[in-house]
Amino acid sequence: MLARAARGTGGLLLRGSVQAPGCAPRRASSGLPRNTVILFVPQQEAWVVERMGRFHRILDPGLNILVPVLDRIRYVQSLKEIVINVPEQSAVTLDNVTLQIDGVLYLRIMDPYKASYGVEDPEYAVTQLAQTTMRSELGKLSLDKVFRERESLNANIVDAINQAADCWGIRCLRYEIKDIHVPPRVKESMQMQVEAERRKRATVLESEGTRESAINVAEGKKQAQILASEAEKAEQINQAAGEASAVLAKAKAKAEAIRILAAALTQHNGDAAASLTVAEQYVSAFSKLAKDSNTILLPSNPSDVTSMVAQAMGVYGALTKAPVPGTQDPVSSGSSRAVQGTDASLDEEFDRVKLS
Question: Where is the composition biased (Polar residues) (predicted)?
């Protein structure tokens, strides 16, 4: 019965101590406190008193007075948190693996009356309930989930124990699995699985590193090509701007030369200077014959420079004849036409440069 000798550390029943004033504690042969009329109940203990064989009351900690002979202390319950070791037992998981598992149970008596009269041996009942619940919960899980879901497994065991032990006046606070022992072959398989998983992660990480490296190299090449194309574009723009400026400068210089030449022809001895220039150009052109091509077009008398100059000056003289009254001087009009043509050609050249 529950009122037998108190158990060792972690037992549910404790021997109550009764200490009369100036006297040592007196106990009955059964280990329970004797009725000495005046009793002192220790803190965190509940003494269940029967009067004439029936439940009478529960003594509170401190001073209590009982009726001699009629009242008897029948049970002594500890209200402290109690720790119970659940023995090791075998259980089969969902994938048919046999495990050796043990645990620790933490509980407390909430109702001394139910704990005294609701069950014969509360400690044994709770231990057996914890073992059966543990086997039942392990049968619902595979081996891998047993290690990953220990917290949920402990919570399920606590809920099952509290539902069954409510009528016993006992509340299970928590349950912890201490050790899980697997068969040697299963342990070797688990180690091989762990090693394979690590190799897999290493291979995946290496492949991801290779991929990131290739992506970075491709991005670098892409940026380099973009920058090179932009540099080439800027170079072409600058080169085109330079060529346009050069063409414009040449056109302006040519126009200025034509203006100066036209002004010089209208001065004294301008025709003599023109004849000298034509003779020099003829001699220079004749010296370059047959240098660039085998096909040559020669005048009838190429060695007669005088006739060539006379012919050129005849054309020039026709342009410089005296103008008819009321008309413009041929030279001045020719110069004016030359300057106007030059201005027109200069404007066309300038427009072409702007369009390009």
Answer: 329-343
